[in-house]
Amino acid sequence: MSAVARAGSRPRLALKEIVLVVVLGTVFGFLYWVFVQAWTALSIAMGPAGDLAQHFLAGSWLLVAPIAIAIVRRPGVGVLAEVLASIVEVVFLGSPVGPLLLVAALIQGVGSEIPFALGRYRRFGWGRYALSGLLGAGLVFFWSALRFGWFGQDLVLVRFGVQAASGVILGGLLAKVIVDGLLRTGVLANFAIGAAHDDGGAATPELVRRER
């Protein structure tokens, strides 16, 4: 049985996969905090339109989910990585958003994971990443819009359009660029993405059945 088949047959995450998701969550927790500082600076630079700054950078807070999913290719790892990153932001870095950030991270993670789940964690093309960023940004936008009353504003469509574009570009396409770059270095050879790359496919139950 190949490495790909073994990856598809395991019901639980391996220790190395758990460690990887924790590391990704921790690293991106710090990066997300940096993006918050960029958000503050951009909002000041934009003057009266500064409240829109958060939408331009919204996609940057989605990055870890598709990266974790693409590498491990197991259900739930995107949500887990996003929530872990938010915990780092809140507990260790004192995010100004506070505990509600965990809720936002959960929503973002679910949205980011849906396209890959629909593809049974086998399809990782540019379109899949773009849709991941769009849904991640879109779902959390509606939650935020309800909280802050954006639906009653004239700029609600502008807000959504900017956030959706940011999700696609920063939270989707940039994630694929990062994943492809890491894959080329060889550091991911021992994970599902490496096995799928070597076998020319993805770690799926169908492969397991065919090889038994």
TrEMBL record:
* Superkingdom as given in the UniProt entry: Bacteria
Could you list this entry's UniProt keywords, alphabetically sorted.
Answer: Membrane, Transmembrane, Transmembrane helix
Membrane-spanning regions, if any? Answer: 18-40, 52-72, 77-94, 100-118, 130-150, 156-175
* Coiled-coil annotated residue ranges, if any: none
Keyword Membrane attributed: yes
Q: What is this protein called?
A: Substrate-specific component YkoE of thiamin-regulated ECF transporter for HydroxyMethylPyrimidine
Q: Which organism is this protein's natural source?
A: Serinibacter arcticus
Q: What is the lineage of its organism?
A: Bacteria, Bacillati, Actinomycetota, Actinomycetes, Micrococcales
